[in-house]
Structures are given as C-alpha cells and as structure tokens.
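Query form — protein DUF5009 domain-containing protein

QUESTION: What is the three-dimensional structure of this chain?
INPUT:
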Amino acid sequence: MTEPKPRLLSLDFFRGLTVAAMILVNNPGSWGHIYAPLAHAEWNGCTPTDLIFPFFLWIVGVSVAFAMSSSKADPHTHQKTIIKAIKRGIILYLLGFFLAIFGKIISAIIDGRSIWEAFQTVRLLGVLQRIGIVFIISSIIFIKVANKTIFKILIVILALYWALMTFIPVPGVGYPNLEKETNLAAWIDRGILTEAHTWASSKTWDPEGILSTLPAVGTCLFGILVGVWMRRKDVDNATKVAWLFTAGIASVILGLLWDLQFPINKALWTSSYVLYAGGLASIGLALCYWIIDVQGYKKFTTPFVVYGVNAITVFFLAGLMPRVLNLIQITKPDGTKTGLLVRFYETCYTPFFSPINASLVWAITYVLGFYMLLYFMYKKNIIIKV
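ANSWER: The structure tokens for DUF5009 domain-containing protein are given below.
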C-alpha cells in the first residue's frame, strides 16, 4: 500500500486566495484607472500586487513537498516522478504559449495573413511558462537532492544571481547596473529571445525573462523547504507554526536589509525580493495553518478553497476569455469598432461609477463570475489537473 498524500486545507485556501487576487489585479476595467495597491511598483519596491506571483510559485514549492515526498523516499520511483513533472511543466508552458499566440493567429486568419506571422512576434515566456519551467527544475532538485542540500542550493542561487546582476559589466554598457533596459537580464533577453519575442509592453526586457528565472526557482525551493517542515511528524503543530513565523519574519528582515544594496524588484526577481516575498508567504501560511487546520475554523474557507483546487484552470480561462470575446468587434455609435468585452464594460459600468471605481467593480465582477463556475465544478467534484 502506498502512503496517502496528506492535504492541507490551509494550503488550498492560501492558494485560492492568491489566485483570486491574481485574477482581480490582471483584469481591471481600465489599465489607466487602478488603485495603487492593485498595480505593480513602477520598478524598485513592492506593492501587494507584486506579492501575488511569488506567493503562487512559493505555494507550488510547498505542494511539491507534499505531493512528491513519498516518491523521494523511494529511489525506484524517481525516474517516473521526474518524467511526470517534466510532462506537467511542458503542458503549463504550452498553455501559456497558447494564450500568447491565440489572438495573433485568429487576427492573422481574419485579416487574410499567414498564421506564421504570429510566430514571428509571439512572446516566448510569461507567467504560465515560468511556472512550468520552475516546476520542472524544482521538482528534479527535490527528488534528487537531500533536503539540507536544497537549502544550500537556495543560498547559492540567491548569492549567484546577486553577483551576476551587481558585479558583471553589461556588454555595450560597460558597467553593472539595475536599470530597466541596461541591466544584464535585459541584455540576455534581447540577445536570446530578441525584442520580437519579449513582453510587448517593454520590447527591450521581459519580467519573466531568462536570467530572472534563476531566482524564481529559488522562490519555489523556499516553498519546498517550508513544505518539508510542515510534513514533519515528529514536531507538534505549535512548534511548526512558531518556527514558520520565526523563519518568515527573519526572511523578511533579511530581504529588507539586502534591499539597501540589491533593491526589492519584481521585474528583476531580485534575491532580496525572494527573501521578502517568501518570508511574507511563510507568515501567511503559518497564520492560515494555525487558524484553519489546527484551530479548526473552516467555514469561511470555502470561497477560496473553490479557487484553490482548480487554480491553473481558472487562471487559464481568465486569460482566454477576454482574448476570445474581444475578437468579436462591435460598431459603436460613432462608427468606430471595439471588442465585445470592452463595449460591455463601457455600457454597463463606466456610466454608473467613477473611472477608478468602475475599473475595480469590473475586476470584482470578473472574480465573482469565475467563482460561480468554480463553485459548480467544486460541488460536482470536477478538478482539472494539469
């Protein structure tokens, strides 16, 4: 008999809360009207929105520890587990790639152009792509390496990335720097991905670029270490929570201290950002674990557990829906055309609220609308696993 995989309700809750927040901040009615906490920091610094993606990657790490520990203990299953992780990571990458290229292909077909033009300007990396890549690398490390060594690898990753970004002169610039377009990570993205395949809003660098994926792996490894700690059967719950709080606070302090020399920055995924976000995630999970799993307060968890058990599904659908609906063009009274979803927002929201509140209410409606779908799936026990 195989050991059943333990499941933390608090982890599902924390994951669902994170994904719901991700849907909220990714779908404002207007990108020109957003409350400051729901927007990313301009460059250095960290808003609540900047914590969402690292929280999710950190949670991926915790989940890896819970899902793969039995396989790690049995060397005969290592290869099978790694193959499954690679397949899952590739599927995640392809889902992200599909979101990036879908609209381009449809537009090319509508305009009578070759669909191959879409591949010439498609973004190669992104949120789902990063999740897939980080998942593969982190899973292999977890399966093949002792837990104490994982901690050492995390330290090496953070130190190595700091050294690369702050000491290596950027070719063509001549000195190391952390500015948007002239840092080492941006130079690597332009050289390998090329400007045609980076983030469309920047063109010269990618927030989910190649080099910054290294510290993103560190975020996932941080979560794995927490998952390993939470699974321990020789430690009582109070001790688990106390140490997790302590480690989280220490990590936040270290991140803030490192920020003085290597600024907290989501786009660069700096080492200080890994420690700061990972520390806050540790504190958040410790709090959820104590309230939900230890004290047994569970009634309030359902809305976010509903989001948590189908996290990737809802993230994919939330990205796909506006792309599909805005391909349907509506002619406005002035003769101009706009997407169906945009027209619906302009008709049903902007006349009744101030611009910034209309944008927020739209985003909340988006979250609630997907909750209805997810709740139906939850009650029918429909869980789509990638």
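ADDITIONAL NOTE: The chain has 14 helices and two strands.
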